[in-house]
Amino acid sequence: MEDKFFEEKIAIIKLRGERAEQQDIHASRESIIKGIKRSVYAVADGRGPKGEKAAAFAVKAAVNDLSAEPRLDAPAIREQFLLIHDAVSKLADKSGTTLSVAIVEDHKLTTAFVGDSEVWILKDGELRRRTAPHRYGEHKKETARLERTAANIRGGYLIANISSPNVSDEAPAKIKLTRALGNEEFDPYLSHEPEIETVKLTGGEKFLLIGTNGFWDAATLNSKSHHAVEHALVASETAEEARKKISSILSRRNIPDNATVMIIKL
Hints:
- This protein is α+β, with helices and mostly antiparallel strands.
- It has helices at 4-8, 51-68, 74-91, 140-147, 213-219, 223-234, 239-250; strands spanning 10-15, 24-33, 36-47, 96-97, 99-105, 108-114, 118-123, 126-129, 153-154, 157-159, 174-175, 181-182, 195-200, 205-211, 259-265.
- It has a single domain, classed as PPM-type phosphatase domain (Phosphatase 2c, domain 1, 4-Layer Sandwich).
- The chain is built from 7 helices and 15 strands.
- A hairpin with a 2-residue loop joins strand 7 and strand 8.
- Helix 2 packs antiparallel against helix 3 and helix 6 (223-234) runs antiparallel to helix 7.
């Protein structure tokens, strides 16, 4: 069980939207490694018939393994993501998930992610994006990577390999993402490698937000939406206060997708 202070630092918004099922999953864990506190937060957005199962496994494995990993560097994080991908591929065929992880340790923030669940931070009064979604046509490097290959792209979507046993020739699967866990029917063009970055926390950071694309699409739909959420965070002193303010903003919006965000007071 997490200590009470750790639990009070976090507030959650979780909406089903217009979807029949809720496939967004989140988790968090705090640990002490060599006398240093480590906080791990994870959000995943499943897709496909077993998407919820894929997302649930991914976040549980991520927080459990990364909170205990003694050597928290890029190779170790990459290895954990690829192990999770292998497991998801076996337990959730024809399905997959995004996975975004934020790790706070020793005045540093490490982000690791595949897909379009994002990490943002409120720093010096500004809501700033820390991760760029892995979506074709939006992530410049990922788009360029696919365009250098023989990937079948139609209408901005990656089309599945029809030789895969999971795909029908009449109705091949398609995906906007360029990276994800599982969904091996899009191999070898869908990458399962996490994008990893570590930055120093300088003291001007107030809130960390990690959420699925359903939340960010609504929260940052345009500059007016972005500024409303930013103002709510600036005006809040606790994660729970921020949750109430942002929930009020979202209540006036159409939310077509599952939308989940973890709000963490730094």
